[in-house]
Model the fold of this input.
Amino acid sequence: MRGYLTYICGCSDSPERVAEVNRINAEKAKKKAEQQRQYQEQAAAAAAQRRAMWERTAAAEALEKSFSNIGDLLKTRMVSAPAITPEISLPAGANMFFLNMS
Done:
């Protein structure tokens, strides 16, 4: 007569290893959430800059339409030209020129 032998075994991680893995995963999740928050802040700041630039452009276009001659327009543009600050960079390839109306 032949017999069959069956082995059943099981294992699990130690409580220390489970705690360590949970800690590592919590740190990763915290780091990811912080990075996501930073990306959202940067996106909001960039959107605000684009919105402000669009509003200035729209206001300038409306103002241009209200002038009767080019001299008045150029004088107004010189007075109302936006200041270049480190927060607002010019697009690549932008050229600047200055016009003296004195």
Summary: The first helix runs from residue 15 to 65.
